[in-house]
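JOB MANIFEST
job_type = single_chain_structure
chain_count = 1
residues = 316
[input]
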Amino acid sequence: MTDKPQPGGIGSIGTAAVARVGYGAMQLFETSADDAAAVLRRAVELGVNHIDTASFYGPGEVNRRIRAALAPYPEDLVIVSKVGARFTGEEPIPLAPAQRPAELRAAVEDDLRQLGLDRIPVVNLRRLDLGPGLQAEDDQIVDVDDQLAEMIALRDEGKIGAIGISAVPLDVLRRALPAGIVCVQNAYSLIDRTQEEMLDFCAAGDIAWVPYFPLGSAFPGFPKVADNPVVVDIAGELGATPAQVGLAWVLAHARNTLLIPGTRSIAHLEENMGAGYITLGADALARLDGVTAPGDGPQLHGLASFEEPFREAPTA
């Protein structure tokens, strides 16, 4: 990676070294196949080697577009998927739970086929522990140990390389640790630091922290990091955008953080990548740290248990 850009510097997910600013591909089915390919290729040019996807994005179309644009894949590219839902297209939430072990396995098989891979480097088990939003009922209420047993079997078979977990509280992560968890995806931002204890736990255990909603919720009517007056002031001082400052703070706050900002726009992609090159001085960091005390932020992660596939938002 030494001859390529490294937005945000270098972090790790499992045994793989990746640029700390990656790309969330969720929105790619909302544009044309040509435009999606252009965004993906530009992301790689800008140094992205960590792409987050799922077979229920589209459904399957995002994976197919990744394959069409990037295969044969760059040697250092780490594709991370997630399982635990299926696409329905219904409103207001176009997803349904798919938490049973057989459904987790089927989703991995979909990933392999759609992406044209023999092994998915990392697969996140997307739980439904943090709600409301998508809820598990009846046979979709599955013990995490049963789910992880299936994930471990898939890893032993060589179909996945490593296991992550998402939308879980700290007690569930602790239970999952014997499976060898390499990353956690939970909601977290400057204005929602309710997961600070989880972040600290991950940092201490060398587990990658890959937050979603790092700029606040994508849902209307809730606070956005980019609207915060302190963030706006610092952005003006640095000649950056407020969104870039918000992302730069998340990167600076913990070294185990990896970002996966998503967009269907090349201009927006370039803006997001630029956040990885912003240096926040001690005064700016202190002012941003003071925006909200740990645990005092609005619990934006409670709005939904899954990303909302249809909303244009700064991050996945």
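[summary]
Confidence is low (pLDDT under 50) at residues 297-306, 308-316.
The CA atoms of residues 89 and 95 lie 7 Å apart.
exit_status = 0
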